[in-house]
Structure formats: structure tokens, C-alpha cells
Amino acid sequence: MDNSINQYAIGELLDGRYFYIPSYQRGYRWTEKQVGDLLRDLLCFANDFANEGKEKKQEQFYCLQPIIARPITNEDKLKSIFGTEYNESIQSHGVWEIIDGQQRLTTIFLLYKYLLDQKGWDAETLKEEEDGKELYHIYYATRDGSSQFLEGLTIKTIEDSDEESLKDNVDYYHMANAFKYIGKWIKTDGKTINIRYQLGGSLDNIRTSFFKLLNGMSDTKGGSVQVLWYEIAEIKEKNNIKEFQKINTGKIRLTDAELIKGLFLLKKNFTSGDKYIKQSELALEWEYIENTLHANNFWYFLQKKGYDMPNRIDLLFNLIYKKNALKEIPEIEWDSKIKEIDARLMDTRQSEIFRFYYNRFEGKMGEDLQQEVAVAWDEVMELFRTLDDWFCTPSIYNYIGLLSQCGEDLCRLVLHFEYMPETICRDDFEKYLKERISYHLRGAKIDDENKQILNTYDKDHDTIYKLLLTLNIHLLNEQNQKLESESDVYKFPFDVLSAQNWDIEHIDSFHTNALKKEKDKREWIKTAMADRKDELKDDEVAALKQKLDENALDDAINIL
Q: Where does the record place the GmrSD restriction endonucleases N-terminal domain (predicted)?
């Protein structure tokens, strides 16, 4: 079996399956804040559908962070996990080792168990009333009886329990606390939220909202809770431990790029006789793109100083996602629409870009799937080749790098370039880039007659930064044009700009190295006064001399 990525509704996991939490993971530790945050998100999401006066969300589900799991089918392994409790029912329902995501799964379990308790339903009633649904089971390797404890939780059993005895078992203590807090939260914060949504303060309505949401399936119209399910092929346990350590020490992150890579490289996407060659080619092209983007001289002509991504290939998927969202939007509306898209993408829990590709491939099989994957990958390669072509053309490289540092969204440039007729030459694109540069310099105040910049450091810092950077770019492109050269010598080093914390104050030695000694300050003031003698007005000179006499050196520096 190969690794796979799917998207499941929680309602689809309510089939009685078993989740095994191995000993290399810590026990349940979610705090009241973490539980409350999840409850708030879920209830607000559910209320968006219940409140008819509000526009419904684009996507009809709330997406949890990914779950990483591995199926366990080896009977000896299953017997060692469940011991005398092992039976045919466990085997038929299926068992998964949870490598990452057990805190979320346990919290969802506790919420669902609380809702069942308030309804007065047992397992059989749930099956009868909810079309055969059965709450999943959780086994913690480090806690014998953990499954029985979780499944026996009710408000009454907690009230009857000795709190001191619960503290002897730290996992049970946290589980019981979370269970109690769910009830408390619904009566307080949950009630407040529903009143704010003008849905009244009925506790039963709140519990019903949660219950409907958790029971929702992938195709449920009224909303559901869904999770990205990253399933690792059944392998040796030591490899699972290594995988867990990587995830939890930050060595790998399931970003959109990681998930999308898994989608593209699934073996079912390659059905022809040369499928292994095609799969290897795609993997090599992916690696080449990633390596190219990780060269800082390439990256920082595309991205603003200080901006980075864990997997830089995410930039390409981000651009393709935006392009798709903007394809029917007039260019005059791009800026506002891009802000909306960026705000949506900020919520990484939703994995918007991954789901864009997941939905694109879902339901396709055989040659149809293979063709769709090939077309999608061709789009990635075509975009990369466009960026690479810009990188290799000094004048365009300089203009785009300048625009990136000014905060221009790269998607606007890519889209405009793609919409240009094929008969248009490079000069026309450069003309457009210059227009965008002018837009970003609209705050510049220039005295044409005296050829002076009227902006000041303290009030117009960003504008002066852009002006000085533009001057550097203009000089480089002017030299390049005269010599008709494509040499990298005429490309501005945006990577160095980003690495060395350069700023406009580097023109001014006082700002660069804040002077501490009185002697140094006096020397700086005298030098600055001499340099600006033709610019300073009589009253400014008089004020400076007075500040020097009063030893108010910092005030004198501020005047200059």
C-alpha cells in the first residue's frame, strides 16, 4: 500500500474504528484555552449557516489540521496492543496508529461524548438514531484502561469521582477537566456567542448545532467538520517514531506544498507503461524548482525583504491559486480581490490551496486522472519557466525585484504578463512595470526646478527608501542598455539587500551608528552644517548655533 492523502468529514470517522496512541507520544494535555478556542471556532462556523441573514461561507465545512495515521493490519501487532480485549469486531472496524493529531481527535471525542451524555444516548441509541454511526475508540499505549475511561465519561461519573484520585493519573485528569469545561463553556461563552448571532441563549440549540456539525458528511449541505487525512503506508514501528520526531521537532511541516506533493506523486496518477519514469520525472522537476527557489538571489527578486516560506515552492501554488480566483475579475479590481484572497490564505488550518488541487483531482480515475495531473503540473512548470526567464533578463529582473521590495503582489505581474497578446514585445511589458513603479512612488515630492527630493526621513521613510532603490535600479538598467549586455553584473543584489539590513539611514552616519560621545556628536553637526550650508536658512543656522551653545546636541541633530 502507498502513502495517501484524503479529506474526511468527522461524520465519516464515526464508524467505530479504533485509534491507537503509541507510547512515544505524550498523553492528552489540551488546556481550557485550547479546548475553548476549538469550540468557539466550531460554533461560530455552525452559526454562519444557521443565521439566514448572513452570507454563507464559500466552503461548507470547517477544516481541522491534518491527521497523520498508519493502518495496523498485522494480527500479532493488534493482539499485542489490545491483549485479551482483542476480538473480531476490532479487526473488522479497523485500527490506525495516530502519528500526529491525537490531541484534536481526543478533544472531538470528548465533545461528542458530552453531547451524547446530554441527550441521554448510549451507543445503541446513537446507531439507531444516526444511521449506524458509532463513536470511534481511542487507546493510549501508556494508559491501561484509557479507552474504558473515555467511553465511560459522563457528568455524573466525574461528579462521583474523587478529584485527588484523578490527579494520580495525569491523562485522566486532563481528559476529565476538558469534558467538564466543555459543559461550562457551552453554558457561558457558547450562550454569549449564540446571542450575538441573534440565535437566542438556548443551551439545547447550542448542543444541537455542535451535534449536527460533527455528524455532517462530506456532502452535507448544512456544514461539517473535516480533516486532511495523511495516511502512511504500513511500515516498521521504528520508522513511525522517526516520522513523529521529525514532525514534532519542526524538521518537516505539512504545509500545502507537502500535501500537494503527495497528491501529485500518488502512484494511481501514473497509469501508462512508463508510469515510473513519469513519476520520477515529476519528482525531479519538483526538486529542481525547490532548489532554484532556495537560491536567495532568485527568491529575493520575487519576494519582499524579510518574507520567506518553509517550502518556497508554495509560492508557485499560491500564485496559481490566485490566478484561478482572479481570472474573471477586471484588472482594476485585482488589488482589493488579492487582499481578500490573502486574508483567506492566512488561515492555514483551512489548507485552501491543497483543497484547490484535491477537489481538482477528486473523482477522476485512470487516463482522466493522469491527464488532469499532467495539465496541472504543466501549469506549474510554465509559471516557473516564466519566472526563470524574468530572472535571466537583467532589466526585467531589476524592475520586478524593485516592485517586490515595494510590496507589489507578484500575482498581478504574472497575470498581466499572461494576458498580454503574443504579438506584444518585451518593451511593452517593461513599460507596464515602469507604470507600476510610478504607482508605488506616488508619495514622492519632487522639486523639478531645483532637482530636489522634498520628502523627509522622519515623515516619508518608506517613500525615500523606494526612491533610493529606484535610483539604483535606474542606473543599472541605463548602463545595461548602453552596453546591450545580459550580464549578471547589471542585476541588483536583492539577496544582499535582504541579508544586510540596509536602510535609508545608511546614508546618514548618525542614524547608522547612533553617536554616544559628545565629541562625536559635535563633529557630526559641524560636518553636516558645512555640507548643507547652501540649503540651511538663516533662522535654522541661528537655531543650530544656539543649540550648540546650550549643549543641546540631540536637538541640533534633529534640526539637521
A: 10-264
